[in-house]
């Protein structure tokens, strides 16, 4: 990571970078990070954080949806063959299978990026990331996945209420802080990288 990008991350993330860098292989990078840590500790000024643009969030979500869609199509085409369930794809049992399937696919596609960088594939492409509201650090995996994705997927799977929630959730982005309902539940926001 170049020194300009290092200047924009939180002190907590600088500590993480410094602790994880191989100081023998990258002595110059380690020295830069250590110097930034010292500067930040002696100053109360944190880097300026820019909220992600609405257009970038929307386009990132569309990219994620396009990547995810083929898996959903395949699931519905082969639904009765895979599960052996003969009811409609909206029955209780089929909803459970669908929920589990989408979680596995979501984690395979985005699990590493969410854990390491606070990003999905779409967010990576549009240079935005999910951070905690309190200190702008990347949330822990259980926090980012559990509250921001799993819980929201779970709520969205509830017939009728889930559809209403799924409609209302993104409308909160038009508030001044640009935080959707899922951001408020998880205590996160999306910023530019």
Describe the structure.
It is a single chain. A two-stranded antiparallel sheet has the order 1-2. Helices cover 64% and strands 5% of the residues. It contains ten helices and two strands. The chain folds into two domains: 3-42, no CATH class; 54-192, no CATH class. It has helices at 3-6, 11-20, 27-42, 54-77, 79-83, 92-117, 121-125, 141-156, 161-171, 181-186, and strands at residues 128-132, 188-192. With 193 residues, it is mostly helical.
**Share of residues in helices:** 55-70%
Query: Which residues sit in consecutive blocks of at least 5 with pLDDT less than 50?
Result: none
Overall pLDDT metric: 86
Radius of gyration: 20 Å
**First-to-last CA distance:** 12 Å
Q: Strand arrangement, largest sheet?
A: 1-2
Shape by Cα distribution: elongated
Structural class: mainly alpha
Counting DSSP E segments of at least 2 residues, the number of strands comes to 2
Number of helices: 10
**What series of H and E elements makes up the topology?**
HHHHHHHEHHHE
Strand content is: 5-15%
Q: What's the domain count?
A: 2
What would you say about this model in short?
The chain has helices spanning 3-6, 11-20, 27-42, 54-77, 79-83, 92-117, 121-125, 141-156, 161-171, 181-186; strands at 128-132, 188-192. The chain is mainly alpha-helical.
């Amino acid at each position: 990571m170049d020194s300009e990008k290092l200047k924009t991350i939180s002190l907590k993330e600088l500590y993480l970078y410094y602790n994880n860098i191989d100081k023998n292989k990258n002595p110059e990078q380690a020295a830069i990070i250590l110097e930034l840590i010292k500067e930040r500790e002696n100053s109360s000024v944190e880097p300026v954080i820019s909220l992600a643009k609405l257009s970038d969030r929307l386009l990132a979500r569309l990219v994620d949806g396009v990547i995810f869609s083929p898996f959903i199509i395949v699931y519905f085409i082969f639904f009765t063959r895979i599960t052996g369930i003969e009811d409609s794809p909206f029955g209780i049992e089929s909803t459970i299978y669908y929920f589990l399937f989408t979680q596995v696919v979501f984690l395979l596609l985005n699990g590493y990026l969410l854990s390491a960088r606070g990003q999905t594939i779409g967010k990576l492409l549009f240079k935005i990331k999910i951070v905690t509201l309190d200190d702008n650090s990347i949330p822990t995996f259980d926090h980012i996945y559990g509250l921001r994705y799993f819980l929201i997927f779970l709520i969205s799977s509830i017939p009728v209420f889930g559809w209403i929630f799924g409609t209302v959730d993104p409308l909160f982005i038009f508030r001044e802080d640009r935080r959707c309902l899922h951001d408020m539940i998880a205590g996160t926001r999306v910023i530019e990288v």
